[in-house]
Design a protein that fits this description.
Order of helices and strands: HHHHHHHHHEEEEEEHEEHHHHEHHH
Structural class: alpha+beta
Strand content: 5-15%
Distance between the termini: 188 Å
Largest sheet: 4 strands, antiparallel
Number of strands: 9
Radius of gyration: 59 Å
Helix content: 55-70%
Shape: elongated
């Protein structure tokens, strides 16, 4: 059961309630104005520095409104219910137990508003912490206006804080809590104004300062919400008096000198009657705590000059920001931070870099390859399947006799490391901000220049080993010219193929080209066969004609020789030769013909005359026959 509050008497109480009401109305108006501006900025600008800034302002206004609203309810509790009269009116249609009705009424009157305002403040604070929007030129143009308004509000809040901190009221029980909350709100407004003034010089620092303010207000709102939940879970008091929920341990630390343990000691003394201030050991610890902590801090700061370089790394020692030497693996001593610093550099670590657009996080989340399970997707080499490791590249093409271009997918990987020399280590740290991004960018430039004049058929038919060697040399030349300190070990070409969507069409074109080539080859073979047959027939006919001509010529010559011989014989023998020739021709002509010779000279009393000359051919042909008598 909480103690009854000690309220101010008479006019002081009325004056306090009036001031708290005025502050509540002012905070509600400020909250409405800031909310309208935030809604307007959310509609016209999705990014910028002002959205997290106004989220912080909204969270501050909500926490302040929750504190003031709870203070008004605490300072002006409702009159107690007379004995015998029910605290709530019973519902005729839905019977509710009286204890639950009493709790619900108490929740609506005293707990609902702090809980809702704390939740809203936490939501805006968390949104401000999660926001990573960069600053734009418009943010830098009006960065002088809003900080002036914030400084004016800070001045008014400073006046209020000075008023309630220097004028102690005798019967105001939680005056220090109000002072701590006012100081915290003042520090948040000054922090936000300083962050907005620095946006032109360092937008990153501005974002971090705003995030720091969001974290501070998040802690306060979370503490308010936890206190409200604890009251909801605890039994109610008999008089149903409201409780002061908006106390913050974090805001109570805004005092000088800093005494973070004072609140804990006072709580132990009030709750359990234990006064640790009277224990000599604790008093001695309190006196020596600051020197011991300070000495440990100085020793720890001096030990920050010792650096151990692992075996797989090298270190670049910087003295006042200037590189002095490249340290080998081992223990090294130098100036403490921030005067001396050692930057870690890789020493022989080999990296594989894909030139595709696949995010590195997605590549790292790929399922491991197992011997028993199916093959991983990155090992598929079918053209009709899309691969995460493929990169699209524009190459030359020819369409309808005109120059054109087409897209081809390729999987190219680079094996690289930081050079082993000290100069390469220095170049890798001070000549490039992100080595993988630089290597990928240079490799893509080389690929564009190399493939700009090559067509798809040429790429598919070219030897990958020679192409990879040429690419490796060109990329290494670019990296060496830029003094990046990167040593390119090898370039590996995994695949070159058309895009997955055009793979079927390309296969159809290839099939058509193969079919056309087969038909052309078949027709050429048929034409060659016909030509050879025609040549063979022509040669045969030519040879036959030549032989026939030679035979005719030979017969003609033989006839000429025989004619010459017959002519010479006729000239020498005369009519006898002609008669002999005649008989010879008749012998040849009638060699196989049976003869019956009739002579007109056989008539009258002339006796038959027998020719006793021998004709072998005629005798042979007529041997079986007998001469007939006339």
């Amino acid at each position: 059961m909480s103690l009854p509050p000690l309220l101010p008497k008479g006019a002081q109480r009325s004056r306090l309630l009036l001031r708290l009401t005025i502050i509540k109305i002012s905070l509600a108006g400020l909250l409405m104005l800031v909310g309208l501006i935030y809604a307007f900025l959310s509609m016209i600008a999705g990014t910028g520095i002002w959205l997290p800034a106004f989220r912080l302002l909204l969270a501050v206004a909500l926490v302040a409104l929750a504190c003031v609203d709870n203070a008004i309810r605490f300072e002006n509790p409702p009159p107690p219910t007379p004995e015998g009269e029910p605290a709530t009116v019973a519902n005729k249609w839905l019977p509710i137990p009286p204890a639950l009705q009493t709790w619900w009424t108490y929740f609506q009157q005293n707990l609902a508003m702090p809980a809702v305002l704390s939740l809203l403040a936490m939501a805006f604070a968390i949104a401000g912490l999660a926001d990573r929007s960069p600053a734009s030129e418009a943010d830098m143009a009006i960065s002088r206006v809003i900080p002036g308004v914030l400084l004016a509000l800070s001045f008014g809040l400073l006046v209020i804080e000075r008023t309630i901190s220097f004028k102690a009221l005798r019967h105001w029980r939680y005056q220090q809590e109000y002072v701590g909350l006012a100081r915290m709100m003042l520090s948040l407004l000054v922090l936000l104004a300083a962050a907005l003034l620095l946006v032109t010089y360092s937008p990153t620092l501005t974002l971090w300062l705003i995030k720091l303010g969001c974290l501070m207000i998040l802690l306060v709102a979370l503490e308010y919400l936890l206190r409200t939940i604890m009251v909801m879970a605890s039994p109610l008091s008999a008089d149903l008096a409201p409780r002061f929920l908006t106390r913050s341990l974090f805001a109570a630390q805004y005092r000088w000198p800093l005494r973070p343990l004072t609140l804990v000691l006072n709580t132990l003394e009030q709750r359990f009657g234990i006064d640790l201030r009277q224990v000599q050991a604790f008093r001695l610890m309190g006196k020596t705590l600051l020197p011991v902590v300070l000495g440990l801090g100085i020793v720890g700061w001096l030990l920050s000059g010792l650096t151990q370089v692992p075996l797989h790394q090298r270190g670049i020692y910087e003295r006042f920001g200037r590189p002095m030497a490249v340290l080998s693996p081992g223990l090294h001593a130098g100036l403490p931070w921030p005067f001396g610093r050692v930057r870690a550099v890789e020493f022989g670590a080999v990296h594989e870099l894909r030139l595709s657009d696949e995010p590195e996080q997605q590549a790292s989340r790929a399922e491991p390859d197992t011997a028993e399970g199916p093959a991983p997707q990155n090992s598929w080499r079918l053209w009709d399947s899309s691969h995460l490791t493929d990169q699209s590249q524009v190459i030359a093409s020819q369409a309808a006799g005109n120059q054109s271009f087409q897209i081809v997918n390729m999987d190219i990987r680079l094996i690289w490391r930081v050079g082993l020399s000290n100069q390469d280590a220095l170049n890798s740290q001070y000549q490039a901000e992100d080595l993988p991004v630089l290597v990928r960018s240079i490799a893509r430039q080389v690929l564009v220049a190399e493939f700009a004049s090559k067509q798809l058929d040429e790429l598919l038919n070219e030897q990958r080993a020679s192409l990879a060697t040429a690419l490796n040399q060109q990329i290494q030349q670019r990296l060496t010219a830029l003094h990046t300190g990167v040593e390119l070990l090898s370039t590996r070409i995994e695949a070159i193929h058309p895009p997955a969507g055009a793979a079927d069409a390309y296969h159809g074109v290839q099939a058509a080209q193969i079919a056309a080539s087969a038909r052309v080859a078949r027709e050429r073979g048929y034409a060659a066969t016909v030509t050879i047959n025609a040549r063979q027939n022509a040669q045969t006919r030519e040879n036959g004609a030549e032989a026939f001509a030679v035979e005719n010529l030979s017969r003609a010559r033989a006839a000429a020789v025989q004619f010459a011989a017959d002519s010479q014989s006729w000239q020498q023998a005369g009519q006898a030769f002609i008669l002999e020739r005649r008989y010879h021709i008749l012998s040849q002509t009638l060699a196989h013909t049976p003869l019956l010779i009739l002579d007109s000279h056989l008539q009258g009393t002339n006796e038959p005359v027998l020719d006793m000359r021998q004709y072998p051919a005629l005798t042979d042909s007529t041997a079986p026959q007998k001469a007939s008598k006339p």
